[in-house]
Amino acid sequence: MSTQAMYECAVCYEDEIQQERVEHVNDSLVCHTCISKQFRAALRIENDYPTRLGTVQLSFSDCHHVLEPEFWVAYAKKEIEYDCPPIMRVYCT
C-alpha cells in the first residue's frame, strides 16, 4: 500500500493537497485553487492586476498550467488592455 504525501496550502490552509496540485510561491506552497482564484480576480478587477499573492507578483508564464486554455486567451487580452495606460485606451460600443 503506497501513501502519497499531502501538503498544506499557505493561503487557504487546506491540508490534504497532493504534490501535483501545489506550487512553490517564494518559500510557501500554494494550491492550484488559490492561484486560479487570484488570476480570475485579476481578469475581473483591474486593481487585482498584476496577479499577486500577498506582495508576491505571480507570473502568468509560470502559472498558466494551473488554468484551462480557454482562460489563457481571455487573460492575454486583459493583459494588453491593463498594460495600456487608461488615458490611452479606446473602447468601441
Describe what this molecule looks like in 3D.
The protein is an alpha+beta fold. It has one domain: Herpes Virus-1 (2-Layer Sandwich). Helices cover 34% and strands 17% of the residues. It contains 3 helices and 6 strands. The protein has helices at residues 32-44, 60-63, 69-83; strands at residues 6-7, 17-18, 22-25, 28-31, 52-53, 56-57. It has a two-stranded antiparallel sheet with strand order 1-2. Strand 5 (52-53) and strand 6 form a beta hairpin. The protein is elongated. The termini are far apart.
The figure for the number of domains is: 1
CATH superfamily: Zinc/RING finger domain, C3HC4 (zinc finger)
Largest sheet: 2 strands, antiparallel
- The percent of residues in helical segments reads 25-40%
**Annotated CATH topology:** Herpes Virus-1
* Number of beta-strand segments: 6
Net shape: elongated
Mean pLDDT: 91
Order of helices and strands: EEEEHEEHH
Estimated radius of gyration = 16 Å
Q: How are strands sequenced across the largest beta sheet?
A: 1-2
Low-confidence stretches: none
CATH class: Alpha Beta
The CATH level-2 architecture is identified as 2-Layer Sandwich
Task: Tally the helices.
Answer: 3
Strand content: 15-25%
Spatial gap, N to C terminus: 61 Å
Structural class, judged by helices and strands? alpha+beta
Task: Give a short summary of the structure.
34% of the residues lie in helices and 17% in strands.
Entry keywords:
93 residues, Herpes Virus-1, two-stranded antiparallel ribbon, 6 strands, elongated
Write the layout of secondary structure elements.
Elements: E1 6-7, E2 17-18, E3 22-25, E4 28-31, H1 32-44, E5 52-53, E6 56-57, H2 60-63, H3 69-83
Antiparallel strand pairs: 1-2, 3-4, 5-6
